[in-house]
Write a structure and sequence with these properties.
The protein is mostly helical and about 80 residues long. About 65% of the residues lie in helices and about 0% in strands. The protein folds into 2 domains: about 1-40, no CATH class; about 45-85. The protein has helices spanning about 5-30, 30-35, 55-85.
């Protein structure tokens, strides 16, 4: 990375722009015949506890996943406004 302060943001910005172009291409040329849907996965993190046999550790992993979904939804609108303004 050339500039750790901005390179990750530029990468994410370009990723979203490329996805948008692929989406528009699919919508204009293929959707009518194929009837598919386009989606995007931006994060594939998964949380588990140290000991999968322990109910306590499974609960910790589940709580982390729920918290992550909550925080993502909380900031999603704000993040999108930052990208497109």
């Amino acid at each position: 990375m050339g500039n750790p302060g901005t390179d990750a943001y530029n990468c994410a910005h370009n990723l979203l722009k490329a996805h948008g172009k692929a989406y528009r291409l699919y919508e204009s040329k293929y959707k009518a015949n194929q009837g598919g849907r386009v989606g995007i996965t931006l994060d594939t993190s998964w949380f588990t506890g140290e000991n999968l046999e322990s109910e306590e550790y499974r609960d910790v992993g589940e709580r982390m996943m729920q918290f992550k979904v909550y925080v993502h939804n909380l900031f999603q609108d704000y993040s999108l406004r930052l990208l497109f303004t």
